[in-house]
């Protein structure tokens, strides 16, 4: 079998045995990493951890006698990094099965927990196990090497993109339109961000831009391979869960557009792939001709890795048990001759060509409601930051916790009367009032408070409805505080985008923020009488903390460290504590476990880290503006220390006093930074963060020792550990495959 050779000679790989190349329909050479058996070992341990914690058995995510996914798609990767990252990479298939619903399709899931008959409870159980396993993998990666934070963040972005499209009903007008959309959630950007770390590429910004054309073509080819082999699984879970429309797959796009069977569509996909492959080889050769001599070796290394990535996905898909289930294993298994109309469905399901759908051009035709079942199937991103819907989803998650399609005209008269002041009307919808809230919810966010709630649920096992309500309350309070905070601080940016009042104006933004308190009260009343007492208590602390911060800024008074910590305990710690107290109020297990001390410490760490990031982090500067705390007139932890250490030096005090007159210049900010460096305020703040982290670890271990023994004997709360591991590091500025 003569295959097109790669540009670079192999260093870490070996040929794939001929028995695994039977039926291989690409012309690109393909290899397997020499550490493939090491990958099998570590992936096996990850899978055993899932099972020991109470997870169900799934088809293997590795290929016996050959290797796992990474060994095939990155056969030239650094051996050490490949072994370290393999467990999380294979775990992504497990999480994907959970998100797609494959795990809960009866015919494919004979080993689900027989003691639990309620699917929603079972989903919640598996979601918690997934979060624990994933968080443990994140912690182990970050403890090994801080540089692997890029993989953790890239993984989170993939998980978020996957959940955003899980219920989209889109009729694509072409295969190209589908591929463009699919690039966002196919883990393409995840692989693209991680490849340089795995192979130690030394590419310039110009190199990355020049190679983007072959990047995008490569990942399009990989999408076609994935869809080709997952066509049966995609339909079985889609039909068994009663989803509307068609699976998100190139095969089903071709079947609908061309009105052909599965076999015919797959044949068209193969032809399209081979045509892309010819273009890929031509493009590779042109890029090598055009690049300068200094870049030639890096270009050759990079495109060699892309070639092996494409071929490796094909070999993995050909042989992975994940993609090959028995035709007799499900009543929804599609036959090769099936067309869109004849695909097996539940009796109540019917495919209509002019489906209620959302088109890519933004035109909406009767958008359908989201499946409530999916609420339980949305795991956190494992730090554990949760994955949330993006701003382009036509179904908004409203503050009362319901997924609703927003009405075009929600107010209707009860009678057709020409005299409006004598007519009766329904109550005016709050849709327009909540637009500022919808906006700030759409901005990028780690949702760390959601993550903390999910982490606490490992101990408290609160009812799913209570968890949803508590998350809504915390979301609304946090959003309200951000809207008001930006107005009070005259901050133009929030998370790299215009602040809410810069979009909707100050009066409307204030009204929306205040209205959210009303919505919170509505939500709290659904929990318990004691929950209302908790809500009022911590809401009081939030406002006292915020008020102290504002008073210091207005009067130019520098607080002591003790006063500053007390302010944090109210302003930042209040939301963390409210979440923990409400969770304990609703707990069905470990109700006596008091975690408020731990959450207060985490609030202190979070705020002082935020102060530190404001000065040190490039990403923070992009999101909030360079040294925004100085412009806002605030007294950060570092400034308090610097003022305490420079009582005789009036420069810093004078510079800070000038903030009330006009924004500080770059030169003035640089002088403040120089004074803080002379005072060693940054080093001092870093040592405080280390002290807090050690105390948090001690408090966490104490709590872990008090809970009953887990099924697998591991009582560690890996989700809280992952939160702290991520907060220890600055965020990585991830690139985007599609934006180059």
UniProtKB/TrEMBL annotation:
Q: What is the lineage of its organism?
A: Eukaryota, Fungi, Dikarya, Ascomycota, Pezizomycotina
Q: Which PANTHER family match?
A: GERANYLGERANYL PYROPHOSPHATE SYNTHASE (PTHR12001), THIJ_PFPI FAMILY PROTEIN (AFU_ORTHOLOGUE AFUA_3G01210)-RELATED (PTHR12001:SF72)
Residue ranges of region Disordered? Answer: 361-399
Q: Extract the Pfam families matched here.
A: polyprenyl_synt, Terpene_syn_C_2
Q: Which SUPFAM superfamilies match?
A: Terpenoid synthases (SSF48576)
**Where does the source fall among the domains of life?**
Eukaryota
GO MF annotation, one: prenyltransferase activity
Which UniProt key words apply to this protein?
Magnesium, Metal-binding, Transferase
Organism name = Orbilia oligospora
Protein's UniProt name? Uncharacterized protein
Q: Which InterPro entries match?
A: Isoprenoid_synthase_dom_sf, Polyprenyl_synt, Polyprenyl_synt_CS
GO terms for biological process?
alcohol biosynthetic process; isoprenoid biosynthetic process; mycotoxin biosynthetic process
């Amino acid at each position: 079998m003569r295959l097109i050779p790669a540009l670079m000679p192999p260093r870490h790989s070996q040929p794939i045995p001929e028995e695994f190349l039977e039926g291989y329909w690409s012309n690109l050479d393909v290899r397997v990493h020499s550490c493939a058996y090491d990958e099998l070992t570590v992936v096996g341990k990850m899978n055993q951890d899932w099972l020991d914690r109470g997870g169900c058995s799934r088809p293997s995510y590795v290929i016996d006698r050959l290797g796992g996914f990474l060994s095939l798609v990155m056969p030239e990767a650094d051996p050490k990094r490949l072994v370290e990252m393999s467990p999380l990479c294979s775990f992504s298939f497990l999480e994907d099965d959970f998100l797609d619903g494959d795990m809960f399709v009866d015919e494919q899931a004979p080993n689900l927990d027989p003691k639990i008959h309620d699917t929603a409870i079972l989903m919640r159980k598996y979601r918690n196990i997934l979060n624990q396993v994933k968080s443990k993998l994140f912690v182990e990666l970050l403890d090994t090497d801080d540089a692997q934070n890029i993989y953790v963040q890239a993984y989170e972005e993939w998980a978020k993109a996957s959940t955003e499209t899980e219920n989209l009903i889109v009729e694509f007008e072409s295969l190209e339109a589908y591929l463009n959309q699919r690039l966002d959630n196919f883990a393409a950007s995840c692989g693209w961000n991680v490849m340089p770390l795995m192979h130690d590429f030394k590419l310039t910004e110009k190199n990355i831009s020049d190679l983007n054309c072959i990047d995008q073509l490569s990942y399009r080819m990989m999408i076609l391979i994935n869809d080709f082999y997952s066509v049966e699984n995609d339909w079985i879970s889609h039909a068994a869960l009663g989803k509307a429309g068609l699976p998100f797959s190139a095969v089903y796009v071709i079947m609908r557009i061309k009105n052909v069977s599965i076999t015919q569509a797959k044949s068209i996909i193969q032809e399209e792939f081979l045509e892309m492959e010819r273009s890929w080889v031509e493009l590779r050769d042109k890029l090598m001709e055009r690049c300068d001599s200094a870049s030639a070796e890096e270009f050759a290394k990079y495109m060699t890795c892309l070639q092996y990535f494409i071929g490796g996905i094909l070999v993995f898909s050909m042989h992975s048990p994940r993609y090959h289930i028995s035709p007799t294993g499900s009543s929804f298994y599609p036959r090769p001759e099936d067309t869109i109309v004849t695909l097996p469905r539940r009796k109540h399901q019917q495919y209509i060509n002019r489906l209620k759908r959302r088109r890519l051009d933004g035109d909406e035709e009767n958008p359908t409601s989201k499946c409530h079942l999916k609420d339980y199937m949305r795991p956190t991103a494992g730090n554990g930051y949760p994955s949330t819907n993006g701003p382009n989803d036509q179904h908004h998650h409203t503050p009362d916790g319901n997924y609703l399609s927003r009405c075009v005209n929600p107010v209707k008269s009860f009678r057709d009367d020409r005299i409006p002041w004598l007519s009766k009307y329904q109550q005016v919808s709050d849709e327009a009032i909540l637009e500022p809230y919808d906006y700030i919810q759409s901005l990028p966010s780690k949702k760390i408070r959601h993550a903390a709630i999910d982490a606490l649920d490992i101990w408290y096992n609160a009812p799913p409805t209570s968890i949803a309500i508590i998350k809504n309350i915390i979301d609304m309070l946090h959003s309200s505080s951000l809207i008001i905070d930006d107005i009070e601080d005259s901050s133009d940016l929030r998370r790299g985008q215009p602040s809410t009042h810069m979009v909707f104006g100050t009066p409307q933004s204030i009204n929306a923020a205040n209205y959210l308190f009303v919505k919170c009260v509505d939500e709290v009343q659904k929990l318990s009488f004691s929950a209302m007492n908790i809500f009022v208590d911590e809401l009081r602390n939030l406002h006292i903390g915020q008020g102290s911060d504002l008073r210091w800024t207005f009067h130019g008074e520098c607080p002591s460290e003790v006063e500053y910590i007390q302010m944090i305990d109210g302003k930042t710690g209040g939301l963390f504590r409210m979440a923990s107290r409400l969770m304990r109020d609703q707990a069905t297990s470990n109700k006596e476990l008091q975690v408020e001390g731990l959450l207060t410490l985490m609030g202190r760490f979070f705020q002082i880290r935020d102060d530190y990031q404001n000065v040190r982090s490039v990403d923070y500067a992009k999101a909030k503006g360079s040294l925004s705390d100085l412009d806002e007139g605030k007294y950060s932890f570092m400034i308090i220390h610097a003022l305490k250490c420079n009582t005789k030096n009036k420069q810093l005090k004078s510079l800070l006093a000038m903030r009330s007159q006009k924004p500080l210049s770059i030169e003035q900010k640089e002088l403040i930074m120089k004074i803080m460096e002379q005072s060693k305020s940054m080093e001092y703040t870093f040592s405080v963060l280390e002290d807090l982290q050690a105390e948090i670890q001690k408090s966490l271990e104490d709590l872990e020792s008090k809970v009953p023994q887990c099924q697998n004997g591991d009582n560690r709360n890996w989700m809280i550990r992952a939160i702290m591991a991520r907060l220890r590091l600055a965020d990585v500025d991830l690139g985007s495959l599609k934006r180059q």
